[in-house]
Design a protein that fits this description.
With about 250 residues, chain A is an alpha/beta fold. Chain A contains nine helices and ten strands. Chain B has a single domain, classed as MetI-like fold, CATH 1.10.3720. Chain B is built from eight helices and no strands. The N and C termini of chain B lie far apart (about 55 Å). Classes of the chains: A alpha/beta (about 250), B mainly alpha (about 220). The structure holds adenosine-5'-triphosphate and magnesium ion. The site of magnesium ion has 3 residues of chain A, from helix 1.
């Protein structure tokens, strides 16, 4: 059974149709990359999966459980929290909490989510995550004391701490200086090798080819092309995909 | 003479301090509530509140004091403030609290609205409730941003308390001025200035300390 099934997902803003029926599914442990030019709807797609935006129509299923089916489009705060639990999100702008240290950024949500769990355990797991991100010596640094690449790696640890079924990245390296993208891509690749289920929106084509099991090319709200990296990147059949890739 | 004047001014300054501290005590939380109202998505809540803020901030506090003190007597035909000094104090406090709550609410609103949307979204995807998001994520960042403007208002309030004399509330300048008539000396008035300077100096130090305490994050 696929871990994620998305069916005919639609979203419009003020009458502008942004997602025009997106369907795909992915297996547990896989990495899916989403490519597409600016404005094609990549961020909107992730935000609908995360329920930061409410889709208009279609279906979202995780582990066979229907989270969204277009019948009901308004949920209580608690219902939304339950749905969002399945997804982690790493933002382009990191969005770390400035008043907390790297470690506190990671422990905050697990502590609030499991008040009965031992704080020491949560802290140990969080330290391990930050160590895995290559930041064992930055635990007590505040976000403004970290480079962009380090901040983004804290953000990844923070998302992983809640053990989401699927971890989403929205252009995780687009806000970084070129010399810092490498360190972030490296930890994402590491996660892919350990079979973390991930959806990555990115403009880093060689990286996408390298880590993905599946690639989707999104064009003006529709999936123009979908397949393995070699299918989509090396021998695209869709004219728009060809044009897009030619520019890279 | 110096001792007499000092004693009298201290007595007056106690009135000033009482009005100052009670105004802060009530207007800060009330201001926070008003700021929520002024940001409400419900227009029937938001619009009247914005109107009130506009009126209060657009007219002199002196005028508000007079209307609040005399208004009920004239419109309702009875004095709701009670008689004597304590009645005048209650009226003055009411006017100050309403006035300052409106000013504070605008500072709070500016502070809250200046927090990037990404902070709320990060909290949402991490499963924080709205209350948790406000108290754990947003509030401290807002406080950091509003300490400088709040500190300005608070220091203005120290000086504004002297306006309460228009409804014969005894504060420090009132006490100082009495010596002009009774003893023909003006230096007690300068002396009141020393009280104001010392007190606002103290507050400046206090706010500087708070700003410094919040300097650990950006
Ligand atoms: N909240 C919103 N209200 C109105 N329009 C929106 C909203 N969010 C997105 N859009 C519009 O939807 C379209 C797709 O936006 P989206 O951010 O999903 O594109 P994208 O593929 O992520 O682009 P980029 O590569 O630039 O990040 C854009 O035209 C954008 O203006
Ligand atoms: Mg985007």
């Amino acid at each position: 059974m696929p871990i994620l099934e998305v069916n005919n997902l639609k979203k419009s803003f003020d009458g502008d149709s942004i997602l025009k029926g997106i369907s795909f599914d992915m297996e547990k442990g896989q990495t899916l990359s989403i490519l597409g030019s600016s404005g094609s709807g990549k961020t909107t797609l992730l935000r609908c999966l995360n329920f930061l935006e409410m889709a208009d129509d279609g279906r979202i299923k995780v582990n066979g459980e229907t989270l969204f089916d277009g019948m009901k489009t308004s949920f209580s705060e608690n219902e939304l929290r339950d749905k969002r639990r399945h997804f982690g999100m790493v933002f382009q702008q990191f969005n770390l909490f400035p008043q907390y240290t790297a470690l506190e950024n990671v422990t905050l949500a697990p502590r609030l989510a499991n008040p009965s769990k031992d704080k020491i355990d949560i802290e140990r797991e969080s330290r391990m995550l930050l160590t895995k991100m290559g930041l064992p010596d930055k635990l007590n640094h505040y976000p403004h004391q970290l480079s962009g690449g380090q901040q983004q790696r804290v953000a990844i640890a923070r998302a992983l701490a809640l053990k989401p079924d699927i971890l989403c990245f929205d252009e995780p390296t687009s806000a970084l200086d070129p010399e810092l993208t490498g360190e972030v891509l490296k930890v994402i690749k590491e996660l892919a090798l350990q079979h973390t289920t991930m959806i990555i929106v990115t403009h880093e084509i060689p990286f996408a080819r390298d880590v993905s099991d599946q690639i989707i090319f999104l064009d003006r709200g529709v999936i123009a092309e979908k397949g393995t990296p070699s299918q989509v990147i090396d021998s695209p059949t869709n004219e728009r995909t060809q044009k897009f890739l030619a520019n890279y | 003479m110096f001792a007499t004047v000092t004693l009298a001014l201290f007595k007056g300054f106690l009135g000033t301090l009482k009005l100052f501290s009670l105004t802060l005590l009530f207007s800060l939380p009330l201001g926070l509530l008003i700021s929520f109202g002024s940001m409400s998505k419900t227009a029937i809540l938001r619009l009247p509140i914005r109107l009130i803020i506009w009126i209060i901030r657009g007219t002199p506090l002196m005028l508000q004091l007079l209307i609040i003190f005399y208004g009920p007597g004239i419109f309702l035909g009875r004095n709701i403030w009670g008689s004597g000094d304590s009645g005048r104090f209650t009226a003055a406090l009411t006017a100050f609290v309403i006035n300052y709550a409106c000013y504070f609410s605008e500072i709070f609103r500016g502070g809250i609205q200046s927090i990037p949307k990404g902070q709320y979204e990060a909290a949402q995807v991490l499963g924080l409730s709205r209350t948790q998001t406000f108290f754990r994520i947003i509030l401290l960042q807002v406080i950091k941003r509003i300490v400088p403007p709040i500190s300005n208002e608070v220091i203005t309030l120290v000086k504004d308390t002297s306006l309460a004399r228009v409804i014969a509330f005894y504060e420090i300048i009132w006490e100082g001025e009495r010596f002009i008539k009774s003893s023909g000396i003006i230096w007690p008035l300068f002396y009141t200035g020393v009280f104001y300077l010392l007190f606002s100096g103290l507050l400046t130090l206090l706010f500087g300390y708070i700003e410094k305490k919040l300097d650990y994050f950006k």
